[in-house]
UniProtKB/TrEMBL annotation:
It comes from the Bacteria. GO terms for biological process: galactose catabolic process via UDP-galactose, Leloir pathway; glucose metabolic process. It holds the Pfam family Aldose_epim. CDD domains: Aldose_epim_Ec_YihR (cd09022). InterPro entries: Aldose_1/G6P_1-epimerase, Gal_mutarotase_sf_dom, GH-type_carb-bd, YihR-like. This is Aldose 1-epimerase. GO terms for molecular function: aldose 1-epimerase activity; carbohydrate binding.
Length: 308
């Protein structure tokens, strides 16, 4: 019997020189490349995902302070999955086994039924469609409330972009945001401020020694109502885009708190989010799904050049 990969089954699709691999554990992206050039900093098939790498953050992105919130008149206590900061972190599906529903040459769809458990009473049917095309990767998540009551909901994704840098200090970054969230030592929002100094990335700027683990908002949309965060080095670019109305926040992380051998060397995390940290507790931009209601909104990654 052959050994089972830590991330479970591996499902790959192709389009031209592009190649994407999605995994059974968490339903997220393990690798995305154009020819021999990685677009995301993934992880080998012999390893599990680390630092949220490529994972789907459902039914909330980021953190919930003390794992506590109240909804529909009931107090809830989530498991504290970030014990060092006493937070519930990045949702409930990162380590779940997802099902493969569609697997075509350039399209695949994965699905998961999120059922009630500690701190969560709201059944959701989740699907994520991955499609490679001439404009790169489009990811379309979908959540349907299959329970008989209202359900709170938030979505985020956690790709780490790379453009061939040895360290993230070498890349140029553009984030079209005019506001950044202020946080406490547990990374829970305390307010917001206009971007300034190293956090003003509205024009392309080389990162250098800038340390980022910040959520940005008031994002300026471009074509088709989408904002774009662009990582660049030389002729290579990697762009995360998202619908500005559905994803009013983006977290950017330069990896400074990762283990020493991975600090600032494994890409820049660019995380589209429907809501900020602690939204289950505060209600800030929280989506509330009525019974049978479905939420869906695309985001994607556009590499350049698109040929190897």
């Amino acid at each position: 019997m052959s050994a089972v990969a830590p991330s479970g089954e591996q499902w790959s699709i192709h389009h031209g020189d592009q190649r994407l691999t999605v995994v059974q554990v968490g339903g997220g992206i393990r690798e995305y490349a154009v020819g021999d050039r990685p677009v995301v900093s993934g992880y080998p098939v012999s390893a599990k995902a680390d630092a949220g790498r490529g994972q789907l953050l459902v039914p909330w992105p980021n953190r919930v302070r003390d794992g506590k919130y109240a909804f529909a008149g009931r107090d809830q206590q989530l498991a504290l999955t970030e014990p060092a900061r006493a937070n519930a972190s990045h949702g409930l599906v990162r380590w779940a086994l997802w099902d493969l529903e569609v697997h075509e040459a350039s399209v695949l769809v994965v699905a998961y039924s999120l059922m009630p458990q500690q701190g969560w009473d709201y059944p959701l049917q989740l699907r994520v469609r991955y499609e490679l095309g001439d404009d790169g990767l489009t990811v379309t998540p979908e959540a349907t409330n299959v329970g008989d009551g209202r359900a709170p909901f938030g979505f985020g994704a956690h790709p780490y972009l790379t453009v061939g840098e040895a360290r993230v200090d070498e890349v140029t970054l553009t984030v079209p945001a005019s506001t950044v969230l202020d946080v406490d030592d547990r990374l829970i929002p305390t307010g917001s401020s206009p971007v300034a100094g190293d956090l003003d990335l509205r024009s392309p700027r080389e990162l250098g020694a800038t340390v980022l683990d910040h959520a940005f908002t008031d994002l300026t949309p471009g074509d088709h109502g989408r904002w774009e965060v662009v990582l660049a080095r030389g002729e290579r670019r990697a762009t995360v885009w998202a619908d500005a109305e559905a994803y009013p926040f983006v977290q950017v992380f330069t990896g400074d708190t990762l283990p020493e051998d991975k600090q600032r060397t494994t890409g820049v995390a660019v995380e589209p989010m429907t809501c900020p940290a602690n939204a289950l507790a505060t209600g800030d931009h929280l989506v509330v799904l009525e019974p049978d209601q479905t939420w869906s909104a695309p985001w994607g990654i556009r590499p350049s050049p698109l040929t190897d």
